[in-house]
Amino acid sequence: MVKDKILVIGASGQIGVELTLALRKVYGNANVVASDLREENDLLKGTGPYVSLDVMNKEMLHVQVIRQNITQIYLLAAILSATGEKNPNLAWNLNMQGLLNVLDIAREEQIHKVYWPSSIAVFGPTSPKINCPQQTIIEPITVYGISKYAGEFWCNYYHQRYGVDVRSLRYPGLISYKSAPGGGTTDYAIEIFHAALEEQKYTCFLKEDTYLPMMYMPDAIKATLSLMEAPQDQITVRTSYNVAAMSFSPKEITTAIQQFIPDFTIAYQPDYRQTIADSWPQSIDDTTAKKDWNWQPDFNLQLMTADMIANLQHV
Ligand code: NAD
Ligand code: AKB
Q: What tens digit of pLDDT does each residue of 237-282 get?
């Protein structure tokens, strides 16, 4: 049996750091090559191989895939929703061309599996707000959402036409304490913890009653590994799976944090990100993921808040 060798692209980012460490636990440190445009994240240093790589440089990417005998690729390099609205062309180019480069190389080199995340940002103002279904009206209004929607259909195309085993999840906003978020609309749900612990006050860029789907990073890692380990015949969605864990507003997370930090206060100063948040669903229906590969989250708002505060207090 051929031993799997994994390339993680965008490994120094919010998800990349934790996913690389989790993959190294499963596949062995030497078998998971971390790569990024920026320098190696401190948490990855000394835990396994690292290469500097630009996913836009297809030739360089191809060379690395051959040189390192790569059999699986996890593509995490992207520009997220808030940064994407500031530079739509850059976001479109990276989010699309990066994916097409990976899919082409996967086809040519017969890579066993590819992972590429989509987002709840594929949905737009005309999608159902509550328990947004797997298949529904999808009319995104951000360049990030448009790139995710197009990307989902490229994944489906490469699977149908060339047999590439590419799998995907529509992550909600991800909350983590290990690595910093990278320019999303849901970043407030991470900033709020740092501000609560450091200054006991926070000014939120979304309104108090803005509900969004969210997930704690350990659940996101669990979902990713479960999806990638599932037998091929259990994967019925080749665009991207809805996954859900919790949904809350800035007001609700403030109340949850006040259980631990009673003096914590919040103020609201909504900016351009409010329009983005208002275009997304408030909650997600993930019945198909539950049915196909037994998806089940472990963390709700209360458990996530307790774990975030406990871990950040020890940093
Ligand atoms: P991030 O911005 O924290 O990390 C992305 C990484 O990609 C960065 O380290 C960056 O240096 C790297 N990168 C950028 N351009 C590159 C290039 N040309 N070549 C190689 N590397 C490059 O993002 P993240 O939050 O870790 O998101 C990872 C993926 O998950 C993205 O596709 C994102 O859309 C998706 N996602 C994230 C969230 C979330 O809440 N974090 C939610 C839904 C979907
Ligand atoms: C963002 O806010 O852009 C991301 C996402 C939900 O895709 N966190």
A: 999 999 999 999 999 999 999 999 999 999 999 999 999 999 999 9
Whether residue 113 is contained in a domain is answered as yes
Domain co-membership, 156 together with 36: yes
121 CA to centre of ligand 2 in angstroms: 7
Residue listed under structure tokens 């800035």: 250
Is 144 a residue of the active site?
yes
Task: Choose among 18, 313, 52: nearest CA to 180.
Answer: 18
* Residues written for the chain: 315
User: Which residue's alpha carbon is at the smallest distance from atom 2 of ligand 1?
Assistant: 182
Phi, psi (degrees; rounded to nearest 5) at 197: -75, -35
Query: Is residue 291 assigned to a domain?
Result: no
pTM for the model stands at: 0.98
109 in Cβ contact with 94 (< 8 Å): no
| β-bridge pairing 72-75 and 113-115 | parallel
Ligand 2 site, residue 81, Cβ cutoff 6 A: yes
| Number of domains into which the chain is organized | 2
CA dist., res. 202 & res. 13, Å (int): 24
